[in-house]
Amino acid sequence: MATYPQNFRFGEFVGSLIWLILWILIIVTLVGLPLIFIVLFYIPLPPIGNQVLTPYLFLTMMVDPSRTIPIIHQLMTTDLFRVAMFPGFTYAALIAAVTIFVERKFLAKMQLRIGPLYAGKIEGIFQLIADGLKLIAKEIIVPSGADKPMFWAAPIMFVSTAAAVVALIPAAPGYVVADTDVGLLAVFAILGFFPLIALLFAWASNSKYPFIGGLRALHQMIAFEIPFILSALSVVILSGTLNLTGIVDSQIQSYWFIFFLPISAFVFYISSLAELERIPFDLPEAESEIVAGWLTETSGMIYGLLQLGSYVKTYALAALFVVLFLGGWAGPMVFPPQIQTPIINIAPLYDQQAANATLWFTLKTFGVIMLMLLPRGISPRIRIDILLHTGWYKLIVLAFINIFVALALIYGGILGPGGLLVR
Amino acid sequence: MAGETAADFTPILYMLGFGLLASVPVLILSRLISPRRRYNPVKFLPMECGQMPTGEGRSHFMMQYYAYILMFVVFDVMSIFLYAWGTALFSIPRVATLPIIGFLGIMFAAMGYALYLAGRKGIW
User: Fold this and answer.
1) A401 pLDDT above the threshold of 70
2) Where do the domains of chain B lie?
């Protein structure tokens, strides 16, 4: 328990803070700025507008907000921005963070509870920050006999693999980290790593419950992998491409594929619930049977990273659902062609198409995420033999029904090149 | 469709690296600021609901899943073959769908027989 020292004075505390700020200022001026200058001399800077960028010009542009705009505009076209900010990590982590909070409040309201309330004045809005601070300050206990390198590496691998899935999802026209011709297959390939990581972590824990949980994760993934892949096959038949941007474009040219392939969308939704280990398919972490499944021996930030990874994965699969069935970023235009801002003119940064696309994509993704959270409030966990029976007997057959529907649509001349419903 | 090089996939590796960059410092920071008390050996025992753990942590047990694994290997390959066909559907003649339907029929007959045997013997 934390206690104040006996001779605590608030004035001295504030004074020490001021001293700290002073020292930081001195160090930044004497060491930081020269270091930035040296680095800027050695990296090649791009031309901005019609002038060559030099370190001097860069620093003058940085202090004037209106002249920083071209630099930001230049930065927004780089790979770094795509990877770190918009369709990449920060966007996904932000949506994951919002999802964690919304899930707790949403489930609480559904079950006539209140949910987090105390952190932050309004409805416990800072609960996530409080949880993060708690997790980062907790001791990480590695069980005796555990495989230490694997135990530490598995959460990191989980988060970065989830990030690699996000890299393939297009969030707006042109805003995709890796625009490959076989995007859909690459998504399936990367998703195949998750049960392996779960199994590795379970094996590394040297404990019985995690081991059972890891094996269950493997079984579940194997039972639902084939309906997952087959339900996306009907989308590929209708659009004729594996590139995710191409799939969205073909939906913009005709209609959203969920109208033609509702059964596929249903199968995809059920199998992604199983892939995400969410209720009713959370057998790998069934807390009333095997403590916490493969997460039993996690503590502190290892648990935090695994949770972050699983919510980033939730975002990735919801976004994949939107891309495959709900027309991606398609939606009516709500933004004006030009905008005026009072103090700093950010007009060069504004792109009407991209803003509109981002809005609709985020809204649809949130809708699908809410749909994925819904069963947790209303459904019990199902037995493992029913799970395997569902995966192997029912979902595969349902997926095949829609493959034949898609074939009929193509050969009947309704969709595909020169079809009736293609605009 | 333009040819694809391995370099088109490097952004995925960038993203993987950024995931590493974002998560490794968090673990290091947590290690720096969290307490580390080592005086109690019981604390580091594997979790077994408060009892002293008995036996091996990584034990062998019968999972009765072998036949499903075999089916998975077969049908995973089948679905990837179907992807190759589905992508090229617009550019191949319509007659080429008939062999694929035959292929599906063979696979489904085999799968139905396997599932029927599974249900009858009750081994899984």
Assistant:
1) yes
2) 7-34+62-121
Tell me, yes or no, whether A365 lies in a domain: yes
The mean per-residue pLDDT over the stretch A209-230 comes to 84
Q: Could you tell me if residue A8 is inside a domain?
A: no
Complex prediction ipTM: 0.85
Chain B interface, mutation test: which of A208, A249, A294, A303, most B Cβ atoms within 10 Å?
A: A208
Instruction: Judge whether A133 lies within some domain.
Output: yes
What one-letter code names the amino acid at A365?
A: T
The string of pLDDT tens digits covering residues A357-385 is 889 999 999 999 999 988 888 888 888 77
21-80 in chain B: CB under 8 A from chain A:
22-24, 26-27, 29-31, 33-37, 41, 43-49, 53, 55, 57-59, 63, 65, 68-69, 71-72, 75-76, 79-80
Question: Total structural domains in chain A?
Answer: 1
Chain B residues with beta carbon closer than 8 angstroms to that of A416: 89-90
> Rounded to whole angstroms, how far apart are CA atoms A317 and A328?
13
Q: Give the pLDDT of residue B122.
A: 61
Kindly state the tokens that stand for A177: 């980290």
Residue A158 maps to a domain: yes
State whether A207 and B48 contact (CB < 8 Å). yes
Which domain range does residue A218 map to?
84-331+349-411
CB contact under 8 Å between A208 and B57, yes or no, is yes
- Smallest CA-to-CA distance from A301 within B47, B46, B30, B38 is with B30
Question: Average pLDDT of chain A?
Answer: 84
A contact test, residue of B54, B73, B87, B101 with most A CBs within 10 A: B87
